[in-house]
Amino acid sequence: MKEHLLALQKEALEVLEKVSTPKELDELRVKYSGKKGALTEVLRGMGKLSAEERPVVGQIANEVRESIEEVINRKQAEFVRAETNQRLQAEKVDVTLPGRPMTQGSIHPLNKVIEELEDIFIGMGYRVAEGPQVETDYYNFEALNLPQNHPARDMQDSFYLTEDLLMRTQTSPIQIRAMEAAKGQAPLKVICPGTVYRRDDDDATHSFQFHQIEGLVIDKGIRMSDLKGTLLQFAREMFGEQTEIRLRPSFFPFTEPSVEVDVTFTKKNGERIWIEILGCGMVHPKVLEMGGFDPEVYSGFAFGMGVERIAILKYGIDDIRHFYSNDMRFLSQFSHL
């Protein structure tokens, strides 16, 4: 058996040295050192050897196996190096080629408007408040003086998830949460930006998802004139110093009295017109009470505007759907702003 092992070693080493492809090397590895290879077949006869011969033959078998595996590993490494060198030559980079330009991103126009609105009102002493987009019926309607079966609920066709949970139709629930957090202590000045949802058909002026920013001020002695002065200051900072506003009577369940606000807008032909931008009013006493404030002591005003409407006027956009199209031709126009 000793002679057989040495003969097998000589044969394997000679054949392995002549291997020229990885496939041939793999086939020879299986032939000589695999589970059913020639070396394994020889070692199966060790059971017939005497106790004195087994250690000697076993040591020789290990040396033969190691010598064969050493050649196999060396040849495999040579093939890997050759393949790597060949790939590097084929994939050589031409360093003289011009580099690919990096496209710089920019803030979405709606986010630009939200940030600008926040800056304006923070400059007036407001703080930013946030709340959940999935709201309870209580915060979205009842606490805003819209009890069950109130006809004004039909103005907002809602996405209900359960009988009590819905996607908020306005950011007004954030105002109620801010009032509760204040625990009846004034002054309270917050703006509430966020995404809102209503069941509506998408067209040039409507979307089932859009953005609002609402504001709330509560303190002693707050009057309608405070609201008008605040909105005039906002309009002039957003649209220019020449902007004027006018207030028209309206109805909202959570404010009384309520008004809609128009701003002056100059068309391309120079014509000056009025365009509605928001609704507002004095906070209804019931809303103050449900928010934890004594309506006999405190008063307040609230306003709400659509961010998309403000952006459309500010940038002269003709279709609300552009904001959600992800069309780079549209978005790239605002990268310099």
Automatic annotation (TrEMBL):
<dbReference type="InterPro" id="IPR010978">
    <property type="entry name" value="tRNA-bd_arm"/>
</dbReference>
<dbReference type="Pfam" id="PF02912">
    <property type="entry name" value="Phe_tRNA-synt_N"/>
</dbReference>
<dbReference type="InterPro" id="IPR002319">
    <property type="entry name" value="Phenylalanyl-tRNA_Synthase"/>
</dbReference>
<dbReference type="GO" id="GO:0004826">
    <property type="term" value="F:phenylalanine-tRNA ligase activity"/>
</dbReference>
<dbReference type="GO" id="GO:0000049">
    <property type="term" value="F:tRNA binding"/>
</dbReference>
<comment type="similarity">
    <text>Belongs to the class-II aminoacyl-tRNA synthetase family. Phe-tRNA synthetase alpha subunit type 1 subfamily.</text>
</comment>
<comment type="subunit">
    <text>Tetramer of two alpha and two beta subunits.</text>
</comment>
<dbReference type="InterPro" id="IPR006195">
    <property type="entry name" value="aa-tRNA-synth_II"/>
</dbReference>
<dbReference type="GO" id="GO:0000287">
    <property type="term" value="F:magnesium ion binding"/>
</dbReference>
<protein>
    <recommendedName>
        <fullName>Phenylalanine--tRNA ligase alpha subunit</fullName>
        <ecNumber>6.1.1.20</ecNumber>
    </recommendedName>
</protein>
<keyword id="KW-0067">ATP-binding</keyword>
<feature type="domain" description="Aminoacyl-transfer RNA synthetases class-II family profile">
    <location>
        <begin position="111"/>
        <end position="313"/>
    </location>
</feature>
<dbReference type="InterPro" id="IPR045864">
    <property type="entry name" value="aa-tRNA-synth_II/BPL/LPL"/>
</dbReference>
<keyword id="KW-0460">Magnesium</keyword>
<feature type="binding site">
    <location>
        <position position="256"/>
    </location>
    <ligand>
        <name>Mg(2+)</name>
    </ligand>
</feature>
<keyword id="KW-0648">Protein biosynthesis</keyword>
<dbReference type="GO" id="GO:0016740">
    <property type="term" value="F:transferase activity"/>
</dbReference>
<keyword id="KW-0436">Ligase</keyword>
<dbReference type="InterPro" id="IPR004529">
    <property type="entry name" value="Phe-tRNA-synth_IIc_asu"/>
</dbReference>
<dbReference type="Pfam" id="PF01409">
    <property type="entry name" value="tRNA-synt_2d"/>
</dbReference>
<keyword id="KW-0547">Nucleotide-binding</keyword>
<keyword id="KW-0479">Metal-binding</keyword>
<dbReference type="GO" id="GO:0006432">
    <property type="term" value="P:phenylalanyl-tRNA aminoacylation"/>
</dbReference>
<dbReference type="GO" id="GO:0005737">
    <property type="term" value="C:cytoplasm"/>
</dbReference>
<keyword id="KW-0030">Aminoacyl-tRNA synthetase</keyword>
<keyword id="KW-0963">Cytoplasm</keyword>
<dbReference type="InterPro" id="IPR022911">
    <property type="entry name" value="Phe_tRNA_ligase_alpha1_bac"/>
</dbReference>
<dbReference type="GO" id="GO:0140096">
    <property type="term" value="F:catalytic activity, acting on a protein"/>
</dbReference>
<dbReference type="InterPro" id="IPR004188">
    <property type="entry name" value="Phe-tRNA_ligase_II_N"/>
</dbReference>
<dbReference type="GO" id="GO:0005524">
    <property type="term" value="F:ATP binding"/>
</dbReference>
